[in-house]
Write a structure and sequence with these properties.
Elements (H helix, E strand, L loop, with lengths): L1 H14 L3 H21 L1 H6 L2 E5 L6 H19 L2 E4 L5 H10 L4 E4 L1 H10 L3 E7 L7 E2 L1 E6 L13 E4 L5 H12 L9 E4 L3 H9 L5 E5 H6 L5 E6 L3 E2 L2 E5 L5 H12 L8 H4 L10 E3 L6 H7 L11
Parallel strand pairs: 1-2, 1-3, 7-8, 7-9
Antiparallel strand pairs: 3-12, 4-12, 4-13, 5-11, 6-9, 6-10
Helix pairs in contact: 1-2, 5-6
């Protein structure tokens, strides 16, 4: 606020002088404004509208409900305007990020790893804690409990997946099958897009197994879903900043605003209105947090099309 007041004062002083003097004062004011912007981290942010890409896990209305409270909080804390930028899938978000048309994205670990490999300007700011309070989660291979599925050398089965760039999709399921001497390529698989869609397709008997976030698999236990195998922990979903479009001061302000929240104390009531994947607090993130995903993936090529 003090920075804005100084600029308003400068403008008023310039306007109260003759034209010749105004030109000289304007030049001096411009130089001072440049210096002032460097000294006032929020000044540049106050005049910029940020574009935020939420993860395409649900329909747009559901995404707005989940992310709007967090966006409103960040707008108030930083004095910026944040606009939603919707995408149909992970690949579209990555394309926009590389083109510089989005400033922030909410991504799972595999999409981030793929993005960082192509766009080194991707900077992880925070991980959002899971309901457990930990900044990590696992993926699971699920099936119906009343039709046990032997995992050893699994072949010719129908397997439901989320999206190609979903951590719990091809990456996790293929890794789990390989631990039992199998592979996704020895089976048929179809990308169904959403975790809930995968779980429900298995419930209906349309597929023999599916890959989902473990927490989602457990959510459908009352419908007969059983967890056959589980991956090691992966880093939790993260808020990713675009260093090519955001100044360092803005990125640090975003990180600080989120990591200082107390989900078990003063901020518990406010966070209750945030989306289920956002309300349990956040911890600072770094690129090295994602090394376990890189190790798990190795040189794996992930097909973008289903195999019938």
């Amino acid at each position: 606020m003090a920075c804005r007041n100084l600029l308003h004062f400068l403008r008023s002083r310039v306007c109260n002088h003759p034209a010749k003097v105004r030109r000289r004062l304007a030049a001096a004011s411009l130089l001072f404004a440049i210096v002032l912007a460097a000294l006032c981290p929020t000044l540049a942010a106050e005049t910029k509208s940020l574009r935020f890409a939420p993860l395409p896990m649900e329909n747009r209305e559901a995404m707005v409900v989940q992310f709007r409270p967090m966006v409103a909080f960040l707008q108030k804390q930083l004095g910026v305007t944040i606009e939603f930028d919707f995408s149909e899938d992970y690949a579209q978000i990555l394309k926009k990020f590389k083109a510089g048309t989005i400033d922030l994205a909410y991504l799972g670990p595999l999409p981030y790893v793929e993005l960082r490999a192509q766009a080194p300007q991707a900077e992880p700011l925070v991980h959002f804690n899971e309901a457990s309070g930990q900044p990590m989660y696992t993926c699971a291979l699920i099936s119906l409990a009343d039709t046990p599925l032997p995992l050893d050398n699994l072949t010719h089965r129908r397997i439901a997946l989320t999206q190609p760039l979903s951590t719990c999709g091809y990456l996790a399921v293929n890794g789990l099958l390989r631990q039992h001497g199998g592979s996704l390529e020895n089976n048929s698989y179809r990308y169904l897009d959403k975790h809930d869609a995968v779980a429900l397709a298995v419930v209906r008997g349309e597929f023999d197994a599916g890959g989902v976030k473990t927490a989602i698999g457990r959510k459908y236990a009352h419908l007969g879903i059983a967890i056959l195998a589980e991956t090691p922990p992966f880093p939790a979903f993260a808020l990713i900043a675009n260093r090519a479009t955001l100044p360092a001061q803005t990125m640090e302000a975003l990180r600080t605003a989120l990591t200082q929240l107390d989900p078990n104390g003063a901020d518990k009531e406010m966070l209750a209105s945030w989306g289920e994947s956002l309300r349990f607090g956040a911890v600072a993130a770094s690129d090295r947090d994602f090394d376990p995903v890189r190790l798990y993936k190795g040189n794996l090529h992930i097909p973008t099309s289903s195999k019938q």
